[in-house]
Amino acid sequence: MADKSNASSRWLDLLWVLFLVGLAFLPPNNEPHKLIILAIIGVFQLLERRVIPAAPIRGRYYVVLIKLGLATILINHTQDVAINSSYYPIFYLPVMTAAMYFGPMGTLLWTSLASAAYCSYLFPVQAVGVPRWLARLMGSGSESAVFTINAAGISELAMRMLFFFLVGMIVNRFVMEYRNQVRRYQELTETLSETNRSLKQAQAEARRAERLAALGQLSAGLAHEIRNPLGVIKGSAEILMQKLAASEVLAKELAGYIYTEVNRLSALVSRFLDFARPSRLALEARDLTAVLEKAVKAVADQGATTNVVIERNYAPGLPQVMIDEELCEQVFTNLVLNACQAMGESGGTLRIRLKPENQLRTTVIAEIEDTGPGIAPDMKEQIFNPFVTTKKFGVGLGLAIVSKIVDAHGGSVQVVSTPGHPGACFRVSLPASRERGAEPSSS
Questions:
Q1: HSE-up of residue 245 (Cα within 13 Å, Cβ side)
Q2: Average pLDDT rounded to a whole number, residues 238-258
Q3: 139's torsion region: left (phi>0), alpha (psi -120 to 50) or beta?
Q4: What was the pLDDT predicted at 145?
Q5: Cα gap 311→349, rounded to integer Å
Q6: 26: left (phi > 0), else alpha (psi -120 to 50), else beta?
Q7: For residue range 74-130, what is the model confidence (pLDDT) as tens digits?
Q8: Do strands 125-127 and 412-416 pair parallel, antiparallel, or not at all (unpaired)?
Q9: d(CA 411, CA 182)
């Protein structure tokens, strides 16, 4: 692309040189000042591309002013009476240059200045009906330099200046359209680049998802196979504990360790299989209040709510939701248990809220809020990923299972911040039932 641009510039430079050489051979032939000025114009035209980058703001003003001055001087050395010179089109050079570097208003101003420079040669002119003393006052050096301009000459002069403006505005229009086109191409290029980056990222994520899916299938199969020997080890440990005599304290203690750790591994494998296997939902219209109360009771039966004060705030007239009751009970059990564990042995306050998302009541929102240490901002988007946890003990599958179940119901789960309240607040949104028999709850 750069090579094409350089080649085009060289061709334009060659055309400029040929144009100026052609002017040099035209009358007046024995005018050294004309040749010198043409040479200066040619050199400056070749150096123009270096002037603009050297002074990005002022350079364009300098270029137009210099060309305007050279054109004005050239006219004065091509005819005894400069206003009659056939070289007047040289003023197109500063006019077109201004049209290339400035906007419409700037082009009009520079064209007006070029017209004024061309009309400056009218000062020694004696207009018809104008006294000679006024012509001398306008700048005629001597009475012999005064000449007459009639109505036809004024029309010719006006036509030439109108063509200055016509050329300037036409060139400026093409230049502005070219700039707009370049800007549109740049915006399109940026959009395509951004789209290309997004596509590459999506492809990378798709490949990563495929690898994770394959790894998940392998892991699920492996976990399923691990459960069988764990069952054998667990059964053997139970029998061993029953057969050991009371005097064999060390052996019985070791058998107890085996039994406890096998139970822990079995629970871990079960949770992993819950996460890995596809969700098969048995959807029914259910009262979310009752499901939430079952989850709270299940956590209380584990002794996790001993030092916890539970505050309930259930909005009246809530619609029923289409859920798999068993899976949703697991969701809220995990969230309530996590909230109680986050507050630790010192306890705290657990706030449970149920409310509609909007007046249309198309979505029901459940919020589980604790007064624990909270979750760091950089972890809010990661805690729903598998094997990510903020606990000292845990494998990080609880919230991943929660997110998977809620997503399967067409809902969403997120961590939100409640102004004025410490701790973490988990918000679960579930779509309301659209069945006719799904009456609102009376809680």
A1: 2
A2: 72
A3: left
A4: 44
A5: 7
A6: beta
A7: 888 887 777 778 888 889 889 988 998 899 999 999 999 999 988 887 765 444 444
A8: unpaired
A9: 46
